Every structure is written in structure tokens, then in C-alpha cells.
Amino acid sequence: MARVEVSTNRPYHLVIFGASGFTGQFVAEEVARTASEVPGGSLKWAVAGRSRQKLEKVLEQAAGVLSKPELRTEVDILVADVGEPDSLAAMCKQAVIVLNCVGPYRFYGEPVVKACVENGAHHIDICGEPQFLEGMQFKYNSQAADSGVYVIGSCGFDSIPADMGVVFTRDQFMGTLTTVESFLTVSTGPDGGCIHDGTWQSAIYGFADGQKLLSLRRKFNHKPLPTVGSKLKRRGMLFFSNEIQQYTVPFMGSDPSVVKRSQRFMVEEHQASQVQYGAYAGVGGVVSVAKLIFAGMMFWLLVKFSFGRNLLIKYPELFTFGTFSKAGPSRKQMDGTSFQFTFCGEGYSEDQDPSKGNPNGKIRVLVQGPEPGYVATPIAMVQAALTMLNEPSSLPKKGGVYTPGAAFAKTTLIDRLNKHGIQFSVM
Ligand SMILES: NC(=O)c1ccc[n+]([C@@H]2O[C@H](COP(=O)([O-])OP(=O)(O)OC[C@H]3O[C@@H](n4cnc5c(N)ncnc54)[C@H](OP(=O)(O)O)[C@@H]3O)[C@@H](O)[C@H]2O)c1
Q1: Which is the closest atom of ligand 1 to the Cα of 156?
Q2: What is the DSSP letter of 360?
Q3: Whole-angstrom distance, CA of residue 46 vs CA of residue 80
Q4: Saccharopine dehydrogenase NADP binding domain: which residues (predicted)?
Q5: What is the rounded distance in angstroms from the CA atom of residue 414 to the CA atom of residue 404?
Q6: For 287-325, b where at least 16 C-beta lie within 10 A, e where not — what string?
């Protein structure tokens, strides 16, 4: 394939595709907020999607929220539809980076990745679906490398805090870090909180298609990564965690898959030693556990059949005790919500040989931030994009399909996140 030009000499540094979606509107707002932080206000950006009318509304709303009336007239609108390849190509030719917010990615994502790779635009998404993320790596990694295009997935709450959290923990540990377990807790204010239907649908189809993910992984034919120190023990399906003082379950999102891929990159490309990783999420007290068990059983029962999936999709509030909703959280709910990731790491101190004896060092790291889905996700996505624009020489040498940890380990992304409300610190 002929090399395509990846140039900063395009009309827009950033194009937000799917800016009319629930998450996309907040990504657009975050770009508008951050554009003024760029020296000289020189960031050029546009919103894109299939409905000009909806995109006009998004700009109108952002103009009101941020008191920037100029957004209504100064930000360009590009009309592009996933089902119309020419419109995607035209969009990609105008962008240095496409921020893709159109999901579920398993249905809509691939044509956008393909158009980016073929037309020389970098691609950043906020996907939390391992099958899509790993599938894109399988299919487009070498083409993206040939084209000099970076396709960086899972740059939202899934999975920047977890993936960069492991990078940060390793960098802060004095010696050889061998294992990390993360414990996620989310707190809501008096108005509660919820997650928008878009993520619910992505989760339903992801679980229903679990078998395809396993067969995709077999195609990679990966050798197991060498472990240093003893093997990290998996905890149970439900346990009381002393680390966060509440009942806890394995985290079902994309974090373990993303962190594992980052570790493989570091072992294979940088001859680093593997950090084994386990991800857990706090549930709370006994009542929350009972609700989770009931909701979990209904989910497993229904997700296998198309009739059941239709029910789950039709009534998200009912089947999740209000955790997911078609309306998404209100701004007030978002203001009252925050997350905390506690990372507990173990390893060998600098003066101990990692090939002998048991790990003798521990570290605890905290990554905390605002509401995960629609405040932290836009911050993480936009900072990932600005890092790409500003620090191209700190990215991996070749283009390709990367995780955040693989792409950004040598950049200042963590410093940037610290300055924008997602804080990384040693406890
Ligand atoms: N990583 C994270 O932590 C995180 C956080 C939040 C969301 N997400 C993910 O982000 C994705 C979007 O979630 P959401 O809640 O924002 O969903 P949503 O509100 O349903 O938004 C979907 C967007 O896709 C657009 N779209 C659908 N079909 C299209 C097509 N054929 N051509 C062009 N655009 C099309 C929609 O356009 P219209 O407006 O015209 O319908 C809309 O802009 C999901 O996959 C979700 O899991 C991830």
C-alpha cells in the first residue's frame, strides 16, 4: 500500500466524530474549554456526525455552558455517516486526529478506523470493548504502521486511569514491580448517578459475543509472557476487600485486557519485565451485593438470547436498579460523582535480585478524578489527543494500533491529566 501523508498541515487538528452523542457532546465541550489553553488559541477543530442539525445544537449548548457565543459560528460542522465510506474519507482527509465517539464500536467502529488508516488521520477512541480493540489491532496494526498512523483505543475512563495507573506505579516503584491489583470505587452525591444507555448497549453485545473474543485471541497466537516473582493469585468472584473496606468483585470492563496488551508491548518492544495485573471494583455493603447478584443473574440469563437482549436494551433502568439509563446522568448528578482507583503493587527493591526469593517491596498509588463516563472520559480523550499533537517524538517509533500505556508511557500525559483533574499520586 502506498504511504499516505500524515500531516499537521490539515484544516483541523481535531475532528470530533459523533459529537451529537451523549458522550460526544461533552468531548466537544472539553475541546472548546481546552482549545483556549493552547498558546495563541491556535487549535483548529470541527465537529462531525450524521446530523448537521444535532451538531448545531451541540455547539449552541457548549456556547451557552462555556459562555463562548463564538462557538456557534466559528466551529465547522462536517457531515459524515459510518454507512457512507466517501463521507468518512472526506472527514479523515481534513483531520490530523479523529476523536471517534461513535459507538457501540463493534457495530460502527471499523469503517472509521479503516478510513483513518487509508487517509492518514490518527484515530483516538473511547471504546471499552476488548473484542473491537483487539480486533482492530489484529486487522490494522501493520497497515497503520506502514501508513504512519496511530490508532489508539480505550482513551476514556476505560482504560486510561487503569493503564496509565500501572505505568505510573511501575515508574514510581524503586526496583522491579511484579504485580499490581487495582480497586475501583465510585461515589455519588445526594442526587445519585448513572451511566448512559450507549455504554449499556456496548456491554450487552460484548458479553453476548464473548466466544468470538476467545477465538480472536487464539489467532494472535501469543506466547505467555514470562513472569517475575510468584504468579498473581486471582481473588474470588465476591470478597470483602481490606484494601477498600467493602465488598468487591472482579472488574468486568476492558481494563485487564488493555493493561495486558500494554504489558506485552513493553516486554516485547522494550524488554521490560511484566507487571501482572488484577482489576477489582467495590460494590459497597450487603444491600448493594444483593442487588448486584440479582441484576447479574438476570443479565446472564437474558444476554444469551436475542429476545432477552431486546428486553435488556429496552429497560436499562429496570434491569440495573437505575445504574444505566436512556437519559444519562444530569449535570447535577455528574457534579456530585467521582472515582478513586487504589493500586496495590508488589515487587523487588533495587538491592534484591528479582530472580531469587519473594518480593520485598510494596507501593500504593491513588488515581482519582471526577465523574468517570462524561467528565473524566472527555478529559482523558482530549489530553491524549493534545499529547499526540504536541509530543510526536515521544510516541512509539512506528504507527500502529496501540493501547494508551504503550502509546503514552514516555509522554507527559500523566502530568497533563494531573493538571486537568485526574490525579495520580503515591499514597
Ligand atoms: N471509555 C469510557 O469510559 C466511555 C465513556 C462513555 C462512553 N463510552 C463509549 O462511547 C460510545 C458512545 O456512547 P454514548 O453513550 O455517547 O452513545 P450515544 O449517545 O448513543 O452516541 C452515539 C453516537 O454515534 C452516532 N452514530 C450512530 N450511528 C451513526 C452512523 N451511522 N454514522 C455516524 N454517526 C453515528 C450517533 O449519532 P446521532 O446523534 O446522529 O444518532 C451519536 O452521535 C459507546 O461505545 C460507549 O461505550 C466509553
Answers
A1: 1
A2: -
A3: 12
A4: 15-152
A5: 11
A6: eebebbeeeeebbeebbeeeebbeebbeebeebbeebbb
Are 167 and 142 within one domain? no
Pocket test for ligand 1, best of 27, 84, 91, 101 (most atoms within 8 A of CB): 101
Q: What is the DSSP string of 180-217?
A: EEEEEEEE--TT---EEHHHHHHHHHHHHTHHHHHHHH
**81, 126, 154, 155: residue to mutate for ligand 1 pocket, most atoms within 8 A of CB:** 126
The total domain count for the chain is 2
Cβ of 54 less than 6 Å from ligand 1: yes
Assigned domain for 5 exists: no
The DSSP bridge pattern shows strands 12-17 and 45-49 to be parallel
Q: Which residue has the cell 468517570?
A: 372
Q: What are phi and psi of 331, to 5 degrees?
A: -60, -35
* CATH number of the domain bearing residue 129: 3.40.50.720
Nearest C-alpha to atom 11 of ligand 1 is from which residue? Answer: 103
pTM for the whole structure: 0.94
